[in-house]
Design brief:
With 343 residues, the chain is an alpha/beta fold. Helix content is 36%, strand content 17%. An eight-stranded parallel sheet has the order 10-8-7-4-3-2-1-14, with helices on one face. The protein has a two-stranded antiparallel sheet with strand order 5-6. Helix 1 packs parallel to helix 10. The longest helix is centred in the last third of the chain and has 18 residues.
C-alpha cells in the first residue's frame, strides 16, 4: 500500500436510514444511534439521503434536528436534498433553524431536477402548478438568496402587534458557506463552482457523449472543472462519496452477505446505464489495507482530502456498527486520517 502524499483531512459517512413501513420508529432510532456512534468514533461528519414515498428517511432535516440534540461535535449533512420536492423559502427556514440548534454544524447538500417518478407524484405534490414549476438551477439560486439573508418580502416593520422581517428568519450567518451541490455532470460541476458552493461527487456520474467512460477519469474531470470555476481554485471543497465495505472485524456470515451484495451490483458498473448514460462506481470491499490501496489508485481520490463514504443501503444495524468501527479504526488511519477528539 503506498504512503499517502496528502493525508485524508475529513472523514464522514452517509446513510439512507431504512425502516420498516409497519413499524418505522425503530429504524429512525437506529439512524440516530448510528450518528451518535459516528461522533464517538471520531468521524467528522454524518450525512442522510432523502427518500420520498419509500422506506428511507423522508425528512432528513427533522432527523438531523434530533441528532443535533444528541451530539455536540460531528457535522450533519444531507446528501442530497432534491429541491424539486421543496419550497425554497420554507426550506431556508428549516435549514437555518436546524443550523442554529446544532451550533452551526449543518451542511445541506442539494440537487435540482424534477422529482423522481414525476408523472406518478406531480398531482399529489403540485396539483395546481405542476406544469409551471421550475426545476432548474434557478430553484437553488432562490434558496441560496434566502439563506444568505436577501429580501424575501418588500415589507418589514410592525403591523398591529406583529413584527415582520424582510428576510427569512431565523437567519444563520455561516450557513451559506456550508451549502453543497451534488453534481454528476460537467455542467453541474461548473455551475457549482461558479456559485461558490462546495461540491459533492458520489458513486454515480454521467458518461457524456465523446468523453471518457472510466468512472475515476470522469469523476476527476468533474473535480477539476469545479475547481477551475470556483474562486478558491484548488482549495475549493470537494467531498467524494464512494461505497466502501471494510471487512476487518466482520464475521464470516457478514462477509458472505457483503460479497453477495457487491457482486449483485457489479454488472451495472461495466458500461453507461440508460439514456442518461449514468456510470456507477464498483463498491470497494475487503480489508482496510486493500481498500486503501484501491483508493490511492483512484484518479479522483488522489485529488480529494475529504470523503463521506456511503453505507450500503440494505444492511442491518449491527452491520453498520461493524463497518463504521472498521472505517474509523483501520481504513481512516490507513488513509492518513486521525479521529476528531470528542469534547
Amino acid at each position: 500500500m503506498p504512503d499517502p502524499s496528502t493525508p485524508l483531512r475529513r472523514l464522514g459517512f452517509l446513510t439512507i436510514g431504512l425502516f420498516d413501513g409497519a413499524d418505522p420508529a425503530p429504524g429512525h432510532e437506529s439512524t440516530l444511534a448510528i450518528i451518535e456512534l459516528g461522533e464517538q468514533l471520531g468521524f467528522d461528519s454524518a450525512w442522510l439521503r432523502h427518500r420520498h414515498l419509500q422506506y428511507g428517511i423522508s425528512s432528513p432535516v427533522a432527523v438531523l434536528a434530533a441528532a443535533s440534540q444528541r451530539t455536540s461535535r460531528i457535522e450533519l449533512g444531507t446528501a442530497v436534498t432534491p429541491v424539486g420536492w421543496e419550497n425554497p423559502l420554507r426550506l431556508a427556514e428549516d435549514l437555518a433553524t436546524v443550523d442554529l440548534l446544532s451550533g452551526g454544524r449543518l451542511n445541506p447538500g442539494l440537487s435540482v431536477g424534477p422529482p423522481m417518478r414525476w408523472d406518478d407524484v406531480k398531482e399529489a405534490l403540485y396539483p395546481d402548478t405542476a406544469d409551471v414549476e421550475d426545476f432548474s438551477y434557478a430553484r437553488i439560486e432562490r434558496l441560496l438568496s434566502f439563506v444568505r439573508g436577501e429580501p424575501a418580502s418588500p415589507f418589514q416593520g410592525t403591523a398591529g402587534i406583529e413584527v415582520f422581517s424582510e428576510r427569512v428568519e431565523p437567519h444563520s450567518p455561516g450557513l451559506a458557506s456550508r451549502i453543497w451541490y451534488g453534481g454528476a455532470s460537467t455542467r453541474s460541476a461548473q455551475w457549482t463552482g461558479e456559485q461558490g458552493l462546495n461540491f459533492l461527487t458520489s458513486s454515480v456520474v454521467k458518461a457524456e457523449e465523446g468523453g471518457p467512460t472510466d468512472f475515476a477519469d470522469i469523476q476527476l474531470g468533474h473535480v477539476r472543472t469545479f475547481r477551475a470555476h470556483h474562486a478558491d481554485g484548488d482549495a475549493a471543497r470537494v467531498s467524494q462519496g464512494l461505497v466502501v465495505i471494510p471487512t476487518d472485524s466482520a464475521t464470516a456470515e457478514q462477509r458472505a452477505k457483503y460479497v453477495a451484495y457487491v457482486e449483485s451490483r457489479l454488472p451495472r458498473t461495466a458500461e453507461p446505464q440508460g439514456p442518461a448514460r449514468m456510470m456507477f462506481s464498483p463498491d470497494l470491499i475487503g480489508s482496510s489495507a486493500q481498500i486503501a490501496e484501491q483508493l490511492y489508485a483512484h484518479a479522483a481520490f488522489r485529488e480529494i482530502d475529504e470523503v463521506a463514504f456511503a453505507l450500503p443501503f440494505s444492511f442491518g444495524h449491527d452491520d453498520y456498527v461493524q463497518i463504521l468501527t472498521d472505517i474509523a479504526s483501520a481504513l481512516g488511519p490507513a488513509l492518513g486520517w486521525r479521529p476528531a477528539v470528542h469534547p
